[in-house]
Specification:
The protein is an alpha+beta fold and 285 residues long. 46% of the residues lie in helices and 22% in strands.
C-alpha cells in the first residue's frame, strides 16, 4: 500500500446498542449463571476499545499490527476492530509563520526574511508514513525554501531606468509569492501536504548594512527626481524660446539666448525659490 485508502467502518451507535445488550445479558446471566460472568466481562472490554470519534475536518488512520488498513475521513461516531491502532490526523488548514532568518540575496547582500504559509494535509497516508513528523517537515522545508528563494532574486533593483525591469524581492510581490508557493508545493507534496498560500511575511536588509542601503535608496530616489526635473526644465526652456521667436517678442542673438537658457535652468532646477533681480538698464534721468 503506497497511497491513501478511504474506508467505511461500523456505525458506532449500532454497536453501542449491542454493547448495552451485552451488559444486560451479563447482568442476567450473572444472577442466574454466575460462571458466565468472566465471559461477559471479557466481551465488554473487547468491544469498548473499538469505539472512536471523527470530528469535522479530522481523520483517523487505522493500522492492524503495523499494516495500513485505511483512513476514515467522514465525521461521526464509529466502531471498528478493537485491535486497530487509530492515529488522528487533522485536515484543517494550518497557518505557519516562520522565524526570521538571515540569508544572502542574489547580489550577496545579507537580508532578514520570513515566510507565511497556509497548508493542510491532503493525503493522510503520506503524512503518516512517508515522513517522520509531517508538522516538523513543514517547518524545515519552509525554511529551506525561503533560503533558496532569497538567493535567486536581489532585494531591490538599483539599475538605471530604461533597462529591462528585474524581478526583486521587494517590488515583485506577486511573482515572488508564486515562485515560493511552487517551490513549497514541490517540497511538501511527498508528505501529502497541500499548499494553500505562501508569501513573504517579513523582508528587510540585515542590521549591518541597513543604514548604507537606506542611503543608497535615498540617493537613487533623488537622482531619479532630478532627472525628471531636468527633462521638464529643458522642455519648458525650448518652448519659451520657440514662443519668443515665433511671436517676435524679442530679438536675441546666440549669446543672449545662452544667458536666458542658463537663467531659466537655474530657476527651474533649483531646490530653492529664486530671488529675482530687476535690471534697470541704462535709463537716462
Amino acid at each position: 500500500m503506497t497511497q491513501e485508502k478511504i474506508i467505511t467502518v461500523s456505525n458506532g451507535y449500532l454497536m453501542l446498542v449491542v454493547t448495552l445488550g451485552v451488559i444486560a445479558g451479563g447482568i442476567f446471566f450473572t444472577v442466574n449463571f454466575s460462571p458466565f460472568l468472566f465471559l461477559f466481562i471479557f466481551l465488554f472490554f473487547c468491544i469498548i476499545p473499538g469505539f472512536f470519534l471523527v470530528n469535522p475536518n479530522t481523520s483517523k488512520v487505522l493500522l492492524l499490527f503495523g499494516k495500513y488498513i485505511g483512513t476514515v475521513k467522514e465525521n461521526g461516531f464509529y466502531w471498528a476492530n478493537p485491535f486497530y491502532t487509530k492515529k488522528g490526523i487533522s485536515l484543517r488548514a494550518s497557518n505557519f509563520d516562520s522565524e526570521r532568518v538571515k540569508v544572502n540575496d542574489k547580489l550577496g547582500n545579507p537580508i532578514m526574511i520570513s515566510t507565511i504559509l497556509v497548508w493542510k494535509v491532503e493525503d493522510t497516508f503520506k503524512a503518516a508514513f512517508d515522513v517522520d513528523n509531517y508538522e516538523n517537515f513543514v517547518r524545515i522545508q519552509s525554511d529551506a525554501a525561503v533560503r533558496k528563494l532569497a538567493s535567486l532574486y536581489p532585494y531591490d533593483n538599483f539599475e538605471d531606468e530604461g533597462k529591462e525591469e528585474e524581478i526583486t524581492l521587494r517590488a515583485s510581490v506577486n511573482e515572488v509569492s508564486e515562485a515560493l508557493e511552487e517551490e513549497l508545493s514541490e517540497r511538501l507534496s511527498m508528505a501529502g501536504i497541500k499548499v494553500l498560500e505562501a508569501r513573504i511575511g517579513y523582508l528587510a536588509y540585515a542590521q549591518e548594512i541597513a543604514n548604507a542601503m537606506l542611503k543608497r535608496q535615498q540617493a537613487t530616489a533623488i537622482i531619479a527626481a532630478r532627472h525628471k526635473i531636468v527633462e521638464g526644465a529643458v522642455s519648458m526652456v525650448e518652448m519659451a524660446l520657440q514662443e519668443l521667436s515665433e511671436n517676435k517678442i524679442v530679438d536675441m542673438d546666440e549669446e543672449r539666448k545662452a544667458a536666458m537658457v542658463s537663467n531659466l535652468m537655474v530657476v527651474l532646477c533649483s531646490d530653492k525659490d529664486a530671488t529675482p533681480i530687476v535690471n534697470a538698464g541704462t535709463l537716462n534721468h
